Amino acid sequence: MRIGLQIPSFTTGEEPATLRQRLADVARRAEDSGFASLWVMDHFFQIDFIGPAEQEMLEGYSTLSYLSAMTERVSLGTLVTGVTYRHPGILAKTATTLDVLSGGRAILGIGAAWFEREHRGLGIPFPPLDERFERLEETLQIVQQMWSRKNGPFTGKHYRLAETLSVPAPISHPRPRILIGGLGERKTLRLVAKYADACNLFDYVGVDGIRSKLEILRRHCEEYDRTYDDIERTTLSTIDLSPGGQSPRGAITHLKNLAGAGVQHAIVNLPDLYQGSSLSQFAREIIPAASEL
What we know:
Layout: E1 2-7, H1 19-33, E2 37-40, H2 60-70, E3 75-78, E4 81-82, H3 88-101, E5 106-111, H4 116-122, H5 129-146, E6 154-155, E7 160-161, E8 177-181, H6 188-195, E9 198-202, H7 206-223, E10 232-238, H8 248-261, E11 265-269, H9 278-290
Parallel strand pairs: 1-2, 1-11, 2-3, 3-5, 4-5, 5-8, 8-9, 9-10, 10-11
Antiparallel strand pairs: 6-7
């Protein structure tokens, strides 16, 4: 099993001027410790179950560009880009730029978007859910076209592009990997089977829930004549190693159970990332064990 690190919070308890160094330190330590990937959320306000909206939040792709300069090997992505936040052509160009400047390490994480408050707050249209999924599918089609040799027009229900031109091309071959995040069985997992290279599931549904979702994904793959094992199965977990939280042994057991359900890449966030020693402890005691799962 591979392990990724999500950074969902930029609240360090220090002045904003110190944040760049704290992020650089986290990224370098994570890479040196064996984490396979680094992820940030694609939000503009902090989300409720992390902290108040007024907490510090950095724009995702600017942050990933900075982290790419601080690292050499880890993959870099968003968990996940809201489809409503950027025009698909601009999103494809942004992800391409990250891929080129990181040396081919970009992953495009994307989903249907959900955080209404930041849409309303920043004046971003927030269409109904069905329309957001329509836009998500068209965006996936546009991104794939822009990452192909086709640079002609695209005409969809919601987006019309006269030229899907993107130069330079990505470094990743044949293109950057696409990850779709979400648990929806009828729409999200169907889009994974049809377009994506990876899925991301929240582990709050439990191990049995993860196993059930992956079986549904397998059936969608059969529907689209897609090889199930070509799709990387990832999850997002919170692991709290601070005093009173989980033990390393408990964390390893959790990861083992996820692996048994079919998960290949467990992405974790550590609540005391800036204040405690959890990153070092995770690297020392958990990553070596996870590599054998």
